[in-house]
Input
Amino acid sequence: GAVVSQHPSRVICKSGTSVKIECRSLDFQATTMFWYRQFPKQSLMLMATSNEGSKATYEQGVEKDKFLINHASLTLSTLTVTSAHPEDSSFYICSARPRTINEQFFGPGTRLTVL
Amino acid sequence: KQEVTQIPAALSVPEGENLVLNCSFTDSAIYNLQWFRQDPGKGLTSLLLIQSSQREQTSGRLNASLDKSSGRSTLYIAASQPGDSATYLCAPYSGTYKYIFGTGTRLKVLA
Output
């Protein structure tokens, strides 16, 4: 089946630093990748949609300058949390949509803790 | 804008019971609907995917139904086990290529 990986799985950083999270589709080409965040005991909220080679589309209320998304290739998207603050601490999950089917495959998630 | 509601929000049952988890969504223009399981602190595990043209899908003790016109889906779990304890999320997949997740049902099956 289609596999999506995320790296790192867990990261702890100091307030004010930037953190990069990678999302890779391992055995398929993903024309579109999605980034979600999940606060404790809440559901997943879509942050942004990224298409290979073009700018990401952010959902309402998501700061594009704070959450930088780059989708440089058909198998890799990165989310950079800039100048991270404790309120950015969350579980970030990516998903990838293959070129030919209407389905998304999810990564295992990244737990970000900002001290 | 798609809105997804899951009922009940939490459920605690003794082992062996048959369960029904409900999902309702406001926009019926969907490609498919997927049910996921999430264990605490973990990512998503896909359980069942129902295409918009289908009425139900089965996998082992799980059966999911879809009534697209009324905006409803149910997940039926037969003979529940403690290992079924998790949060169950439904997510309709729309023409904007977005999964919108429901609020989830936190299930606890007691041994």
User: Anything to note?
Assistant: Residues 6 and 23 of chain B are 4 Å apart (CA to CA).
